[in-house]
Amino acid sequence: MTGISFRHSVKSVVPLAMIGLVAMMAFSGPARATTAGSTGHVQVEVIGTGRPVLMIPGLNSGAAVWRETCQALQPQVQCHLVQLPGFAGAAAADPLPDDFLPAMRDELLAYASQRRLERPAIIGHSLGGVLALQMAIAAPDAVGPLVIVDSLPFYAGIRNPQATAASIKPVADQLRAGMLASDAVTYQAQAEAALAGMVRDDGHLQLLRRWGHDSGRATTAAAMHSMLVHDLRDEVAEIRSPTLVLGSWAGYRAFGATEASTRDIFQHQYAKLPGVRIEMSGEGHHFLMWDDPQWLYGQVRTFLDTAE
After folding, report:
1. Which backbone phi and psi does 195 adopt, to 5 degrees?
2. Per-residue pLDDT tens for 193-247?
3. Which of 20, 97, 143, 209 is the most exposed place for a label (fewest CB within 10 A)?
C-alpha cells in the first residue's frame, strides 16, 4: 500500500475507520432459501416470501453478514442476500470493471428489473450503503425505502469538506497503486490491522479476517478507489425514497468521538437528502447487525412498516 501518511483529526478517523480505511490511508435459521440467482457477476440468495428487500454487504464482506437480520425480519420480508464479486471468496468479475460501484449498481438494478421486484427496499452496509444510494439516485422510481447502515455519501470529504471527487482522485489513484504493488505479507497485515475496532466479538472478527483473506486484492483496490472518487453529497437530493441512516460511534471513543460529534458528520454529509432520518447506536461498532442486533432489527422493522 502507498507510503503516504496522514495526520487524522477525530472527525476524519471515525468515518474512515468505518470502512477499514484507517490503516490503508495511514499507509497512503427459521427461514429457508427458496431460490437463488445472478445477474452478471452478482450472486443473490432469496429467502422468504414477504416484501422484497435487497441486502448488500460492505467491502470484502460475504452475503452472510445479513443472514441473522434476514431471519429476524421473517416472515414480513423476502430477503435478497447479495454477494458482490471478488469479496469473501466469491469469483471476481472478469474483466474487472473500470469503475466498480457503478457497474455493481447497474447489475443490481438489472436484477431487480428481471425479477420484477416492484420498488424493493434496500439495506446496505458501508460500501453496500453507497451502492444503495447510487441505485436510488440512478433509478429513483425503481427503488423503495433505503436503510443505510454506517455509510456516508463521500468518505473522502470528511477530512476536508471542501474536497471534491476531482481533488481526491490523485490520492485514490496512488492508494490503489500502492495496494496492488504491496507484497502479500504486508498487504495482509495492513488489511487485518484495518479491522481493529470494527466489531466487538472475537468470533466475528475472525470471520472478517477470513473474508478479507479470501477477497481478491484487485477487486478490493478497485472498490475502494471507486468509493473514494464518487461524491454523492449533492446527488442525494435526487433520491425519492424514504431513507433511514443507522450510524455507529461507540467503537471510536478511543479517538475522542462522541455521539454528538459523529451525528454531526452524518448530518452534514446527508444534508441534501430530503426527509432523511438519522439514528445512532450507542452500543454497536461498525458491524451494527452483529454488535447491536436488537436495536438494528427494531429500527428496520419500524421503518419498513411505515415507509412506502
Report:
1. -85, -10
2. 999 899 999 999 999 999 999 999 999 999 999 999 999 999 999 999 999 999 9
3. 209
Burial tier of 114 (Cβ tally within 10 Å: 0-12, 13-18, 19+): exposed
Which positions ≥6 away from 190 have C-beta within 8 Å?
A: 1, 23, 24, 27, 182
Residue 214, judged by CB atoms within 10 A of its CB (0-12, 13-18, 19+), counts as: middle
How far are the Cα atoms of 15, 87, 122, 142, 299 from residue 60, in angstroms, in the given order?
17, 4, 19, 27, 25
Q: How many CB atoms lie within 10 A of CB 29?
A: 10
At 132, list the grid cell: 444503495
By DSSP bridging, strand 277-281 and strand 243-248 are parallel
